[in-house]
Amino acid sequence: MTAEPADGSARNGQKRAAPRISARAAARREEILTALMEKIARKELLNPSLREIGRAMEMEAAHLLYYFASREELLECVIMRWDEQSHASVGRDGSTLDSFADQVVRNMAIPGIMHLYLSFAAEAVDPAHPAHDFFLKRFAEVGAMLERNIRREQEAGIIAPEVDPARQARQLIALSDGLQLQSLVNAQVDAAGDLRDAIRELRRFGDRGVGQ
């Protein structure tokens, strides 16, 4: 899939500069973002074009560009807001490998958001796509968080010291995203349960030691 320049997308990976807007316009931008998230969560929109978003919001597509620089920026904002809400739901204990699995439960309870994330990420595989850098950064941030937690459990003697934290973090991200994709195709797939099993196996590996 590719971006849609005719619908307000940026070309060749170059984003339009975000417009400078007033406080009133910023409030309207927030209203649009909130309403769009609700429609995506209800699966009324699935990886929509700018025109489809405009129709759903009863706005001209071009008018949306007053509040958001492009379709890609708007969808990035949806994912970032979802991430913010996910981080807030973690609570005082902060992120852990277990909370990473818990977030999958939250994601699959609102499959429209996960459908958007997976579809949009697939588009952004192209280095020229406007959201390519956004997903590069997001994967790096999630990977860094998982690495920290793996190292923390290695220091606590829960995970074997021989485990490569960076590689294991990439594998957990791949497993999480792949399982959530499968669960969208087949509701019988327990994405969170399978991810928790992988985390438990990682910890058992530390208990019994390498090569034993």
Question: Summary?
Answer:
By secondary structure, this protein is mainly α. The protein is built from nine helices and no strands.
Overview of this protein structure:
- The protein is mostly helical.
- It folds into two domains: 60 residues, no CATH class; 137 residues, Tetracycline Repressor, domain 2 (Orthogonal Bundle).
- 66% of the residues lie in helices and 0% in strands.
- The longest helix has 24 residues.
Descriptive key words:
Tetracycline Repressor, domain 2, elongated, 0% strand, mainly alpha, single chain
Q: How large is the count of helical segments? A: 9
Q: Which CATH architecture of the largest domain is right? A: Orthogonal Bundle
Shape by Cα distribution:
elongated
CATH topological fold name of the largest domain? Tetracycline Repressor, domain 2
- Cα radius of gyration in angstroms: 19 Å
Strand content: under 5%
Give the CA-CA distance, first to last residue.
47 Å
Uncertain runs are: 1-14
Draw up the topology in text.
Layout: H1 23-41, H2 50-57, H3 61-64, H4 71-90, H5 97-109, H6 111-123, H7 132-155, H8 165-185, H9 191-208
